[in-house]
């Protein structure tokens, strides 16, 4: 009788072990599949993921509008990683920046975030919009030679009157391109 009881305990231990092993491997497979299908953000929540192709296609149908002290100005934007990243930031919401005069030839302000840069030694001309140090935007109304990433060029004849001040306020928005 004791021997039959021991066999039952051994069988019970085996069954419990096998059930535990099955549950453990099942949960590992489920976690693995979830991570592949739905990546988690830093907070452990499921992050939405758009393919870079989808993002690129959507961003090519959008343009950045610039307003300086309440006046809309036309800009010819570059096609580079920094401008694409700026569009992605603007897709989250428009923003305004207060810029300060520097050196008598530019207005500069902190973006509050970084953009990818491809800095090159170049001479900025009046109307150029440059990225400096990955996190500052610079609007030129004169010229200066330094290492920048070009973002665009303002095509406005009133540029000097718009930027040749101690401070200016700029607003950037993202809007669909009219066909």
- Element string (H = helix, E = strand): HHEEEHEEEEEEHE
Q: Oligomer, anyone?
A: single chain
Q: What's the pLDDT, averaged over the residues?
A: 79
Please, how many helices?
4
The N- and C-terminal alpha carbons lie at a distance of: 89 Å
From the spread of the alpha carbons, the general shape counts as: elongated
Number of strands: 10
Low-confidence stretches: 27-50
CA radius of gyration is: 28 Å
Which characteristics define this entry?
Cyclophilin-like domain-containing protein; Cyclophilin-like_dom_sf; alpha+beta
Kindly describe this structure.
It holds the Pfam family Cyclophil_like2. This is Cyclophilin-like domain-containing protein. By secondary structure, the chain is an alpha+beta fold. It has four helices and ten strands, in the order H-H-E-E-E-H-E-E-E-E-E-E-H-E. Strands 1, 2, 3, 4, 5, 6, 7, 8, 9 and 10 form a ten-stranded antiparallel β-sheet that branches. Residues 27-50 have low confidence and may be disordered.
SSE layout:
Layout: H1 2-37, H2 52-60, E1 62-68, E2 71-73, E3 75-77, H3 81-91, E4 95-102, E5 106-110, E6 120-124, E7 128-132, E8 136-140, E9 144-154, H4 159-163, E10 167-176
In short, what is this structure?
This is Cyclophilin-like domain-containing protein. With 179 residues, the protein is α+β, with helices and mostly antiparallel strands.
